[in-house]
Write a structure and sequence with these properties.
The protein is α+β, with helices and mostly antiparallel strands. It folds into 2 domains: about 300 residues, Alpha-Beta Complex (set domain protein methyltransferase, domain 1); about 70 residues, no CATH class. The chain is built from 13 helices and 12 strands. Strands 1-8-9-5 form a 4-stranded antiparallel β-sheet, with no helix packed on it. Strand 3 and strand 4 form a beta hairpin. Helix 8 packs across helix 9. The chain binds S-adenosylmethionine (SAM). The site of S-adenosylmethionine has 14 residues, from strand 4 and helix 9. The site of S-adenosylmethionine (SAM) has 14 residues, from strand 4 and helix 9.
Length: about 400
């Protein structure tokens, strides 16, 4: 890392929130509940490229933050009708503390009354969550076994959209993002993608698009059996696929779309996550702090670096403590010192296995933003010297 880059990290560090919030009930230790994870970390392609953020990409990330603003919390008629519709469908109360409004990042949930740390702010029964089980049996019967769960959910969304107002999910389907509203790199033009061609986001985007195209090719023969579905295009499939990667949660019961909960936007500093109660068959969210009426209520999608947020969710965070860079040294296989160099890398980056993100080859190391915040240059130099001496003695 160059001097200018490391000082930039330190400047950012001083702006990071430093007071950890605590939950009134430690929901994570409640045995009955288990937490779901956003699927981004579960659906990585096995091929892994080097992860070098060129300066211009960093500029793009910082630039995007200029558009970040506080919640707008204006309501509209469609949104006002959404929760009563879902509660009728679920035959139970889902939330009395939240309402749907518009934020700088699209729809969002806002506090309708004072919320206290530890309050359960919403409870969505499994019966109104969309899982691959919702796939029409006649479609499932002719789908290839190779079709993954993301694609299955994408097909469900496409089928329901085709049904228009006669779909039992119509109020939800019309809230999902459409082409033109999605900023994931899978929708970037070739010109835009070329600007990030040295980063792994570029390669992951290429891989992701190839996977979607392959899945679509496998799905088309099934869709062609149904006159209403044969007009579905690759672009429609890509939009539906993105709706799933950016909105679904993975839990013990598999992948699911959770209407209403998926209107919540992400805050990397939030401790609220989606919890699943398999006995009582609902998912829920517990507030990690107090909210005043009208405040936007946020949850944490997971510890994702910006590259992954961009690919799977279509946004980046200006100060993301989970951000990281992958640097590939490209140590030639015929290099006599290759093993020693790889070992050195392991010493220098012992946390490499904890890194969330794209897989990476052996000769790659990851610098995590949070590590650079904690890094004390003198300790780092000491460590380097120790490793160097150990190797000199051994060789
Ligand atoms: C699960 S949905 C959240 C609801 C969404 N805002 C909507 O209009 O339906 C995830 C999407 O919300 C937006 N989003 C969520 N958190 C964001 C954030 N912190 N910054 C920018 N966009 C965000 C992104 O478009 C992302 O793909």
């Amino acid at each position: 890392m160059s001097h200018s880059q490391s000082s930039a990290c330190l400047i950012h560090a001083s702006r990071l929130p430093c007071t950890p919030r605590t939950l009134k009930h430690d929901v994570l230790t409640t045995t009955m509940l288990h937490c779901g994870s956003r699927i981004a970390k579960l659906f990585r392609s096995p091929v892994t490229p080097p992860f070098n953020f060129p300066r211009r990409l960093l500029i793009k990330f910082e630039f995007s933050s200029l558009f970040q603003a506080k919640g707008l919390n204006t309501s509209d008629e469609e949104s006002d009708e959404f929760l009563p519709w879902l509660e009728r469908k679920a035959r139970t109360k889902i939330s009395s503390m939240l309402w749907i409004g518009k934020s700088a990042y699209g729809r969002s949930l806002f506090a309708s009354e004072n919320i206290r740390t530890g309050d359960c702010i919403l409870k969505v029964p499994y019966s109104v969550e969309i899982t691959p089980d919702n796939l029409l049996p006649k479609i499932r019967a002719i789908l290839s076994d190779k079709i993954g769960t993301v694609s299955k959910l994408a097909i469900i969304l496409l089928v329901e959209r085709k049904m228009g107002q006669s779909s039992g999910w119509a109020p939800y389907i019309c809230c999902l993002p459409q082409h033109g509203e999605i900023h994931s790199t899978i929708f970037w033009s070739e010109y835009e993608l070329n600007m990030i061609c040295q980063s792994s986001v570029y390669q992951e985007t290429v891989n992701q698009k190839a996977k979607i195209e392959k899945d679509f090719a496998a799905v088309v023969p099934a869709l062609q059996q149904f006159p209403d579905l044969e007009s579905i295009t690759l672009q429609d499939f890509m939009c539906a696929y993105f709706s799933v990667t950016s909105r679904a949660w993975e839990s013990t019961k598999g992948l699911s779309l959770i209407p209403f909960t998926d209107f919540m936007n992400h805050d990397g500093g939030s401790k609220s996550i989606v919890l699943f109660d398999d006995d009582k068959m609902f998912s829920e969210v517990i507030a990690d702090r107090n909210y005043a009426p009208g405040e936007e209520v946020l949850i944490n999608y997971g510890k994702f670096p910006n590259a992954m947020l961009l690919l799977d969710f279509g946004f980046t965070l200006p100060y993301n403590i989970h951000d990281q860079v992958q640097i590939q040294l490209s140590i030639p296989h015929d290099d006599n010192l290759r093993e020693m160099k790889l070992e050195l890398l392991q010493h220098l980056t012992p946390k490499i296995k904890d890194a969330v993100g794209f897989n990476c080859p052996d000769d790659t190391f990851i610098i995590k933003y949070e590590d650079t915040i904690l890094l004390e240059p003198s300790k780092c130099m000491e460590k380097l010297k120790t490793i160097k001496h150990t190797h000199i003695r051994h060789s």
